[in-house]
Design brief:
By secondary structure, the protein is α+β, with helices and mostly antiparallel strands. It has 13 helices and 18 strands. It folds into three domains: about 90 residues, ATP-grasp fold, A domain (Dna Ligase, domain 1), CATH 3.30.1490.20; about 130 residues, ATP-grasp fold, B domain (D-amino Acid Aminotransferase, Chain A, domain 1, 2-Layer Sandwich); about 150 residues, 3-Layer(aba) Sandwich (Rossmann fold), CATH 3.40.50.261. The chain is about 35% helix and about 25% strand. Helix 11 runs parallel beside helix 12. The longest helix is centred in the middle third of the chain and has 18 residues. The radius of gyration is 25 Å and the shape is elongated. It binds adenosine-5'-diphosphate and magnesium ion. Adenosine-5'-diphosphate binds next to strand 2, strand 7 and strand 10.
């Protein structure tokens, strides 16, 4: 689960990290009031969406020449820019072409930036521990640095039990080139980042940019956090920060029915039981030249309601040209699944070819039910045949 920049900054500030003063606004009037509260000092208006790259984004259809992060010095301009930001969707490298609607703005006192740094923490699966990453080349182009000069990104492995140790923070601060009392300031922000990451079960937490201002103050200007969904039950205060308007409606619907669903770019809808089988189904579709439209795991006990909802979610994607159901009946018997598929097929009103591969307990009874249904369902024996059939069907071949 992702949260907004202003929420991430609040979590960091609660652990002692320095962030510039800011106020949240959901209307032009509130944005103006926030500007006034800073005594007319320059502000940065920041559109709150979960996607990154806002600074370099654009407001679709607005004709405006600014992105989701705009430096402003007058009350009049704050009004004008807030109006556009709240009216038009913001498109960035990380949103789709339609962009994302903005309903909240962060009005932040502008920092007089001397230098921008990158600071981030992720779970490094290769070494099995969290890693803190830092770079003196922070700002909006950190992806370029990572791709072309990875040696400019410093890494420090963090003990999950002990957290970031003082000598590690000092080492990073010195290597980044901080001097004088900035070393201690930078260390304070690193410690806050490490504590939030470990205590709240983040999978990613980033401060980009971390800045030194011309007055010599070290501050977190932007923050992004992603939390491990499987650990959210331990953090109701984090779960309550969820903004459903930022999430893919299909993924949200699936989650409500207990389905694990991830949207992909292809044309073949997949309905599978078990995450491992779902992964191998996607692999074998690709092996046969097709592209999966989604990952969908109905779990161990797929019932009629779940299968019906799963079909509805898959078919609501207009790119889906054919659907593959790949079920291994273990605890769940194949004839029960077949009945669920038939009932769901009728209820949903299928409009694309459906290929079904069943294996496991009561497979013969299951296949018989499908064959005798008189419905337009292609049966397949084995994964290879199923994949070949569904790839052909998606291409419009018989
Ligand atoms: P994003 O990463 O989504 O583009 P950021 O919050 O990182 O958004 O903003 C992009 C750039 O805008 C920053 O790298 C920084 O140069 C500038 N910026 C952001 N917030 C402020 C601020 N409070 N004061 C001055 N400049 C800012
Ligand atoms: Mg940023």
């Amino acid at each position: 689960m992702k949260i907004h920049e202003y929420q991430a900054k609040e979590l960091l500030a609660a652990e002692g990290a320095a962030v510039p003063p800011g106020k949240v606004a959901t209307s032009v009037d509130q944005a103006l009031a926030a500007f006034d509260s800073f005594g007319g000092a320059p502000v940065v208006l920041k559109a709150q969406i979960h996607a990154g790259g806002r600074g370099k984004g654009s407001f679709v259809g607005s004709g405006a020449d600014f992105g989701g992060v705009k430096y402003l010095t007058s009350r009049e301009k704050v009004g004008e820019v807030a109006k556009v930001m709240l009216a038009y969707p913001l498109q960035t490298k990380q949103t789709g072409a339609d962009g994302q609607k903005v309903s909240t703005l962060l009005v932040q006192k502008a920092a007089d930036i001397a230098k921008e740094y990158y600071l981030g923490m992720v779970l490094d699966r290769a070494s099995g521990v969290p890693v803190m990453m830092a770079s003196a080349e922070g700002g909006v182009d950190i992806e370029e640095v990572a791709a072309h000069s990875p040696e400019k990104i410093l890494k420090e492995k963090i003990s999950p039990e002990l957290g970031l140790l003082p000598f590690q923070a000092r080492k990073l601060a010195f290597e980044l080139g901080f001097q004088g009392d900035q070393v201690a300031q930078a260390e304070g922000i690193m410690r806050a980042l490490s504590r939030v990451f470990l205590e709240k079960d983040c999978s990613i937490a980033e401060i980009n940019p971390l800045v030194v201002t011309k007055e010599g103050k070290v501050e977190a200007l932007d923050a992004k956090m992603v939390f491990d969904d499987n650990a959210l039950f331990r953090h109701p205060e984090i779960a309550s920060l969820r903004d459903e308007s930022e999430e893919d409606p299909a993924e949200l619907r699936a989650a409500q029915s207990g389905l694990s669903f991830v949207r992909m770019e292809g044309s073949i809808g997949c309905l599978v039981n078990g995450a491992g089988l779902a992964m191998s189904t996607m692999d074998i579709i690709k092996y046969h030249g097709g592209e999966p439209a989604n990952f969908l795991d109905v779990g161990g006990g797929a019932n009629k309601d779940q299968v019906t909802e799963a079909f509805r979610i898959i078919l609501s994607d207009k790119r889906v040209k054919a659907v593959l159901v790949n079920i291994f009946g273990g605890i769940m018997k194949c004839d029960t699944i077949a009945q669920a598929i038939l009932a769901a097929f009728k209820e949903v009103g299928f409009h694309v070819p459906l290929v079904v591969r069943l294996e496991g307990t009561n497979v013969d009874a299951g296949k018989k039910l499908l064959a005798e249904s008189g419905l337009n369902i292609a049966a397949a024996s084995g994964m290879a045949e199923a994949a070949q059939k569904v790839v052909d069907a998606a291409r419009g071949k018989k």
